Amino acid sequence: MMNEEHGSNDADPLRDLFAHVRPRPAPPAEDEAEIRRALFLEWDALTGRRVLLKRFGAAAAAAVVVAGFAALLLRTSTAPAAVVAAVERVHGDAEVDGVALTLGARIPSGARVDTRNGQVALRLEGGGSLRLAPQTELTFAAAGRATLDSGAVYFDSEAGAAAARIEIRTALGTVHDLGTQFVARLAGDRLEVGVRDGRVTIARASDSIDVDRGERVSVARADRPRREQVATFGGDWDWAERLAPPFAIDGRTLFDFLRWVEAQTGRTLAFADAASEQAARDTVLSGSIDLEPLAKLAAVIATTDFEYTLDGKRIVVSRRR
Asked: How far apart are alpha carbons 197 and 211 in whole angstroms?
């Protein structure tokens, strides 16, 4: 009885409490709409994140497939080789990787040039003229770097082409040009390097040899290097002169043309007097002619009121009387 009474007494305060509770006032209609909108936005955000995670997972899987496919393409294909030179002149039969060379052809890195019974003049991408004699085999490793297996090459860095450099590797040493004109000839077990202008270095495993203007150094496997004086014109240089790059005379001065002849022939330009030199600087040429340097000199001078003589290594120019 006591428990029942006690339970009844405990319930009375709660009954009395609820009896006094009144419903809370409803929020204004505009607030209710805002609350509903916020709830719906939160719901969309939650469910959207789930969809986004699913989509992200699918995208990641697709990216893995694409990356794998790209890696496969990289393994199965190679980029084209860089161009290292262009053919500026070609006389007779010459090939690159077994294909006949033609004027204007582009030479890629890694290509092997075989002049056979022909001659080739190349314009290097880094600047300068590289000329190959008959029976020459040369392989380009990269721009400005090649391996000479046999034959002879002539390099002219050309005045003003400060960046023009070349490295010629051979079994007997590596020839480094130092802004110059030189010829390198490899025949059997002997390497000869002659310098027309500037200086070159022959680097070998045991030493390094400098070759200056007007010198020729011969290097062999069994013998000590041999050094001798050589002329800078005629003789050994004739074949390289025949491959001199074109010189467009139209609009150029006679003085500019004479300096080109000087550079291509290894001779020294001289004027009979100061008045002749000034007149050559003022004389502007016109027309077009493409011949070897000395033949071109004769043809061009014939169209002016100048004359010249070959005095040893000098080209002496004067006004006609």
From this structure: 10
Q: Report phi then psi at 282, rounded to 5.
A: -90, -15
**Strand-strand pairing, 314-319 and 268-271:** parallel
Residues with Cβ < 8 Å from 52, sequence gap 6 or more? none
Q: What is the DSSP letter of 145?
A: E
Closest CA to 85 of 44, 146, 34, 39: 146
Instruction: For residue range 252-272, list pLDDT tens digits in order.
Output: 999 999 999 999 999 999 999
> If DSSP codes are grouped into helix, strand and coil, which group holds residue 228?
strand
* Residue ranges of domains in the chain: 27-77, 83-238, 246-319
**184 pairs with which residues across the strands?**
153, 193
Separation between Cα atoms, residue 245 and residue 182, nearest integer Å: 16
Maximal CA-CA distance, the chain:
158
DSSP H or E run through 71 = helix 29-76
Round to whole Å and give the CA distance between 105 and 246.
Answer: 16
Q: What is the pTM of this model?
A: 0.74
Q: Which overall architecture, per CATH, does domain 83-238 show?
A: Sandwich (2.60)
Provide the token pair at 231: 């002329």
Domains 83-238 and 246-319 share a fold: no
**For every residue of 78-124, which 3-state class applies, written as one string?**
CCCCCEEEEEEEEECCCEECCEECCCCCEEECCCEEECCCCEEEEEE
The answer to whether the beta carbons of residues 280 and 317 sit under 8 Å apart is yes
- pLDDT 10s digits, 282-308: 999 999 999 999 999 999 999 999 999
The CA-based dihedral angle spanning residues 139, 141, 146, 149, taken in that order and rounded to the nearest 10 degrees: -40
- What dotted CATH number matches 246-319? 3.55.50.30
* Residue 264, both tokens: 């291509």
